[in-house]
Amino acid sequence: MEVKGSSIAMIIVDVDLFKRVNDCYGHLAGDYVLQKFAECLGTMVRPYDFIGRYGGEEFAICLPGTDIEQATVVAERMRENVAALEVEYMNYRIRVTGSFGVTVYDQESPEDVDILIERADSAMYVAKSHKNTVYQCVS
């Protein structure tokens, strides 16, 4: 499938208060929650999009050919689906939320692509200060 457009949107999402999951239910439960969180995100992307673990409890999502408005809509849908997710682990039902940072990179821009990641990460930290929200950062 050909991807049209010269922009790439980037979403970085952090699982809110994840340390509490590990502290309350153990690290195996935390790992399981991360797997289910990633699966939930994966249901919201196209076949040519990319989702990868960015570190700890953070994930990076690349959306080729997507502008900032479209990426924000995707992030908001992801946020809603994650908030509705109930992970069953042993006899526990674990719920988490996510903080989403969204930005876009124009491939014709003279900026380095690392700036894209930096902006998405900064937006995610703003969202994280509120929890369970989406924040966009435009260049």
What do these coordinates show?
The chain is an alpha+beta fold. Helix content is 41%, strand content 29%. It has helices at residues 18-25, 27-42, 68-84, 113-128, and strands at 7-15, 50-55, 58-64, 87-89, 92-94, 98-106, 134-136. It has a 5-stranded mixed sheet. A hairpin with a 2-residue loop joins strand 2 (50-55) and strand 3 (58-64). It is elongated, with a radius of gyration of 15 Å. The two termini are 28 Å apart. The model has no long low-confidence stretch (mean pLDDT 92).
Per-chain topology:
Layout lengths: L6 E9 L2 H8 L1 H16 L7 E6 L2 E7 L3 H17 L2 E3 L2 E3 L3 E9 L6 H16 L5 E3 L3
Parallel strand pairs: 6-7
Antiparallel strand pairs: 1-3, 1-6, 2-3, 4-5
